[in-house]
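Hey, resending since the last one bounced:
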Amino acid sequence: MPEQGQSGHDRYKALLMGFIDGELAPGERGEFEQHLAGCRECSAELEEFRKLKEVTDMVRFGEPEDKVWEVYWRGIYNRVERGIGWILASVGAILLLAFGAFKLIEGLLVDPAVSVMLKIGVSALLLGVVFLLVSLVRERIFGLKHDRYSREVKR
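The structure tokens again:
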């Protein structure tokens, strides 16, 4: 098979990993095998990649034992850290929402062009959303702490 131009050769280099992994369509595979028969560079690169694949296939990542994870999840540092994180995140969200609602209400209240009904309606809506959000966050935190099924699930 006559040697193709650089763009054709680059195409075969791009097919190399697909060939090694057995992901090429039968037509592409045959075409690639024909190219390999006449191209020393691609044949040498194929052998290097096959050796590399053999080595990487043998590598296994170690997972910590379940006992190690259990000690970690029950550790006081983890529990305190998460508890403080949730408390700070909740307080921050509540403060930001309350501040944003206050600024919106403040802008409405001082504007004489806005009707009293609209001022009361928007104020009630924003305060209601803040109260519902606080309630929801408290409920979720309580639920996570007292969920009897979460103790049975291994992380």
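Helices lie at 6-20, 26-38, 40-58, 66-74, 76-110, 116-146.

Sorry for the duplicate.
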